[in-house]
TrEMBL record, chain B:
Its main location: membrane. Keywords: ATP-binding, Cell membrane, Membrane, Nucleotide-binding, Repeat, Sugar transport, Translocase, Transport. It comes from Neorhizobium lilium. PANTHER family: CARBOHYDRATE TRANSPORT ATP-BINDING PROTEIN MG119-RELATED, GALACTOFURANOSE TRANSPORTER ATP-BINDING PROTEIN YTFR. This is Sugar ABC transporter ATP-binding protein. SUPFAM superfamilies: P-loop containing nucleoside triphosphate hydrolases. Residues 11-243, 255-503 form the ABC transporter domain.
Length: 319, 504
């Protein structure tokens, strides 16, 4: 039997884990394992949102900008003395607007998702940075609930791990057991057929980008909770590519209609273990980026082989 | 019409067969083309005309047989090789690059290492003028209309000094004025010694223009000879005169026909760009309405508008009434919710979900429309639905988790049909329901269609295959040039009569 991509990824993750436990001192300790899981929580949450979009044959390049800038604005509002509820509502409204805009442009204006989200991400970053906040990093005001959330532990495991697990379960339920979740797969597999059979293709597209934006906001809040501030320079980091890496390497085909939450978990596990091991070995960051990009490229090429789009048989002319 | 017997044969095909996945599209055809003649190639949709010419032009490779070009046995591996040898093909859908200018398209593939745009514009201008084509060489191809695009295609063929030019349905998109120009050009090319193969559904044009005529039917050559020995009736009977009838395609007499029930759908003056033109007709409950038309007659487009897939013209688009209430669907979903289901002719690209199982494909019909009220998916409901319909439609697969793309054409078609029936339609439109389907499955699909009509549904069957139309329909509509032009009762009509109405 041929191995599926997720099986390959899972076995590679286990292999690296075993090799690192054996070879690297300080890898196989409870503290380090907790730190691995913690490090992939935010990445994994972002990848959940990305997965929903990619399964529907789209991509959301504005995820990181929405994550960092919405929370930066939120903290700025708090620091300027707004009430918590008002600030949160305002930021949530902004995030929903961006999600709706992304979805509307992709669904109704027929602009390719990659350009829409690239542009909206840049816009969000530029607008918030220049108009709404005063410096790159915005701290969480002291005594705010985000601070206490960041310190919360349960059985010595940081709270974001549970939040990641909870969200993963919710997304799993959505994709697997709701009508709207199934629509994502049908639309990703064959959008024309899905439209013809009567699915609401365009409203669905909008919904996916809105979900992705809201998940990004949650990931941002968790980041602020654990770091006690948010640094907007993360928008220009490689985080975005790490998210796509997690989704694609886990086996969510860029051609749409394939994969699920399990693939995100496998991808996140592999990337988390790898990054942690590279940090322990002390590979410089630039080489880490090189290794990651090589893996992403390889994953996309393998994805192309495993999930080919069959154009040949689609062409049935007059014979 | 004078043909010089001494004229040399330039292309000769001997016993050419081409099979797609074992199904022959062209069977053992021998054909020859002489220098400086216009040779019309006629036949129904799917008779093998396009395939035969594509073999000559190197677009498809023959399965067996021989081809001689100027007496030498040869087989062109690519259209490019054929073009270099002097064989050009002008396709139905033009093969120009839309984002390039006319001049760039003309010289595509023959550019030098460095191109001076001004230089090629000037020479293109001169060249187009010498052909008497009023086309601006600096215009982008995407801004041109169908007729001008065709002129560019022809100019490109002439520019390559082609000695053989194959035209696939060249006049389908042209206006009468443009047609006259086109015919004049063809005659001029002929006088220059160019041999022309001309595929057409327009018999008058073939009779008027050609020197010789070859007629194909079901992939076989049935008749070939000097044009002067043919007339319209002789061509039509050669095109349709089948020996095959048997169990599958039996003509029915008047007593077996179903009576029309209540009028479900009434369409008046429906128009969509220039594909559907002022089309009017009605569809009734409890019977099968067969719709026959040749390719380009607008039959598929008409029913795609009815089922909400395409939108009719906003202004002067006509009216569609369902149960005497006017409707205008923006998306297929609205049509599906009103009980109109369209079963596509192209199941691969707009029918099924290829990575998914039979069960998921069938279930999508239920999920999609407003029939499934609950937002939560019940897996047991899906499996129950799947086993019910795989049994009902006799869908054969290893198990219900088999991916649809792995099934045979007949089973794929049954999945697509089943998915439509799950939606409990009142009006089902089958577009080419048995295309690419094996004989056993054809009988089963016909039975399904008949049962639906017996249950009182309004059923429409669009088909290019006359025996299928005659066998299934209780009423036959013939579509030509974007509108229904004639209505027949199957007990009183023959293949010849229907074909006569469909060609022009």
């Amino acid at each position: 039997m041929r191995l599926s991509q997720e099986q390959i990824v899972a076995s590679i993750a286990v292999l690296i884990f075993a090799a690192a436990s054996f070879a690297l001192p300080g890898f196989f300790t409870p503290e380090n394992i907790v730190s691995i899981v913690r490090s992939i929580s935010v990445l994994g949450i972002l990848a959940l949102g990305m997965a929903i979009v990619i399964i529907g044959r789209g991509i959301d390049l504005s995820a990181v900008a929405i994550m960092a800038m919405s929370v930066a604005w939120y903290l700025q509002l708090l620091n300027d003395g707004s009430s918590d509820g008002a600030a949160l509502m305002l930021v949530l409204a902004g995030v929903l607007c961006i999600g709706l805009l992304n979805g509307f442009l992709v669904a109704y204006a027929d602009v390719p998702a990659i350009f829409v989200t690239l542009a909206s991400g840049s816009f969000v970053f530029g607008f918030v940075r220049s108009q709404l906040i005063t410096q790159d990093a915005v701290p969480v005001p002291s005594g705010h609930w985000l601070q206490s959330l960041g310190g919360l532990r349960f059985l010595d495991i940081p709270v974001e791990v549970f939040i990641f697990a909870g969200l993963a379960f919710l997304v799993f339920l959505f994709l697997r057991y709701t009508k709207w979740g199934r629509y994502v797969y049908y639309a990703g597999d064959n959008p024309v057929a899905a439209r013809n059979v009567g699915m609401p293709i365009r409203p669905m597209l909008v919904l996916r980008y809105v979900i992705s934006a809201v998940i990004s906001l949650m990931a941002g809040l968790l980041t602020a909770a654990s770091l006690h501030s948010i640094n907007t320079r993360v928008v220009n980091s490689t985080l975005l590519y790490d998210i796509v890496l997690v989704a694609v390497i886990g086996g969510i085909g860029l051609s749409g209609g394939k994969g699920g939450v399990r693939n995100v978990l496998y991808g996140a596990a592999l990337i988390g273990i790898m990054l942690n091991a590279m940090t322990i070995i002390d590979i410089p960051l630039i080489y880490q980026n090189l290794i990651k990009s090589t893996i992403l490229l390889a994953a996309i090429i393998i994805d192309g082989f495993l999930n080919p789009r069959d154009e040949q048989t689609a062409q049935q002319g007059d014979i | 019409m004078l043909v010089d017997a001494t004229k040399e044969t330039i292309i000769r095909l001997e016993g050419v067969t081409k099979a797609y996945r074992g199904v022959p599209a062209v069977k053992n055809v021998s054909f020859d083309l002489r220098r400086g003649e216009i040779h019309a190639l006629l036949g129904e949709n799917g008779a093998g005309k396009s395939t035969l010419t594509k073999i000559v032009a190197g677009v498809v490779e023959m399965t067996s047989g021989k081809m001689f070009h100027r007496g030498k046995e040869i087989s062109y591996a690519s259209p490019h090789a054929a073009l270099n040898a002097g064989i050009a093909m002008v396709f139905q859908e033009t093969s120009l690059v839309p984002s390039m200018t006319v001049a760039q398209n003309l010289y595509l593939g023959t550019e030098g290492f460095l191109n001076r745009l001004r230089g090629i514009y000037i020479s293109a201008q001169q060249f187009l003028q010498s052909l008497n084509f009023p086309v601006d060489p600096t215009a982008m191809v995407e801004t041109l209309g169908a007729a001008k695009r065709q002129m560019v295609e022809i100019a490109r063929a002439v520019h390559h000094n082609a000695e053989i030019i194959i035209f696939d349905e060249p006049t389908a998109t042209l206006t009468p004025e443009e047609k006259r120009h086109f015919f004049a050009l063809i005659r001029r090319l002929k006088s220059q010694g160019v041999s022309i193969v001309f595929i057409s559904h327009a018999l008058e044009e073939a009779l008027m223009l050609s020197d010789r005529i070859t007629i194909l039917r079901d992939g076989e050559l049935v008749s070939s000879g000097e044009t002067s020995s043919y007339d319209r009736n002789k061509i039509i009977s050669a095109m349709v005169g089948r020996t095959l009838s048997g169990e599958l395609y039996r003509q029915r007499d008047g007593t077996q026909l179903r009576k029309a029930g209540k009028k479900v759908l009434s369409v008046q003056d429906l128009s969509m760009s220039n594909v559907v033109r002022n089309n009017s007709f009605s569809i009734f409950q409890g019977q099968i309405t067969g719709v026959f038309g040749l390719i380009g007659s607008g039959r598929t487009e008409t029913f795609k508008v009815v089922s909400g897939i395409y939108k009719r013209d906003f202004k002067r688009g006509g009216t569609i009434e369902l149960d005497d209430k006017p409707v205008r669907y923006a998306v297929p979903r609205d049509a599906v919710n009103d009980g109109i289901v369209y079963v596509t002719e192209d199941r691969k690209s707009e029918g099924f979900f290829e990575t998914m199982s039979i069960a998921e494909n069938l279930f999508s019909g239920l999920l999609a429309a407003g029939r499934e009220k609950s937002s939560v998916i019940s897996m047991s409901e899906m499996h129950q639905l799947s086993s019910e319909w795989t049994q009902k439609l006799n869908i054969k697969a290893i198990n219900e988790n088999a991916r649809v793309v792995e099934l045979s054409g007949g089973n794929q078609q049954k999945v697509v049909i089943g998915r439509g029936l799950v939606q409990k339609p009142r009006l089902v439109i089958f577009d080419e329901p048995t295309r690419g389907v094996d004989v056993g499955a054809i009988a089963e699909i016909h039975q399904i269609i008949n049962e639906l009509a017996d249950q009182g549904l309004a059923v429409v069957v669009i088909s290019s295959y006359l025996p299928e139309i005659l066998n299934l329909s209780d009423r036959i509509l013939v579509c030509r040039q974007g509108r229904i032009v004639e209505e027949f009762s199957p007990s009183e009509s023959t293949e010849e009569k229907i074909m006569y109405a469909a060609v022009h």
